[in-house]
Structure to design on (180 residues):
């Protein structure tokens, strides 16, 4: 009987040891899961911080690029205008020596045509307003006068200041006198 008791005690001890071993393994697995989660958390935090730093660098570079672009945005246009300025200066020099008014007038008209063509090439277009129906979206009425005839009522009788489009967007409304 002692043998049986010893065997039972041994079996219980073995069972206790197995259970203790299993508990230890479970604790180690729990710790390893916790460690894995902590490691994963650290990795994600590191990635997040790097991403935030990259984004801040991107924003800083984008602002810097915009500032550089703003400084030189009109460079091509200004180079074109300088060419026109040269023509005006030559015309003014020749005006002092010119005996004929017709030649000076022709030179000024040529410079004006070149100026209009240059602006048109850059997307500037004059708005047709005279004799058109008044449109508050396009025109600014600065005066209303009695219409000389019935067909001019509600129309633009005179254009005081021209309106302009830049690439089909209104940049200045035409100032007009409207017939009542």
């Amino acid at each position: 009987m002692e043998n049986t008791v010893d065997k039972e005690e041994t079996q219980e001890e073995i069972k206790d040891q197995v259970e203790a071993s299993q508990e230890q393994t479970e604790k180690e697995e729990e710790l390893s899961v916790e460690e894995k989660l902590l490691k994963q958390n650290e990795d994600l935090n590191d990635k997040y911080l790097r991403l935030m730093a990259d984004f801040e660098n991107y924003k800083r570079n984008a602002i810097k690029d915009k500032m550089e672009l703003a400084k030189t945005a009109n460079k091509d246009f200004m180079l074109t205008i300088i060419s026109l300025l040269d023509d005006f200066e030559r015309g003014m020099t020749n005006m002092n020596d010119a005996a004929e008014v017709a030649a000076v007038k022709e030179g000024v008209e040529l410079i004006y045509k070149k100026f209009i063509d240059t602006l048109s090439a850059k997307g500037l277009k004059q708005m047709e307003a005279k004799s058109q129906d008044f449109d508050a979206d396009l025109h600014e009425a600065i005066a209303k006068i009695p219409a000389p005839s019935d067909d001019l009522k509600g129309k633009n009788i005179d254009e005081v200041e021209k309106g302009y489009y830049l690439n089909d967007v209104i940049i200045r409304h035409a100032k007009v006198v409207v017939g009542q």
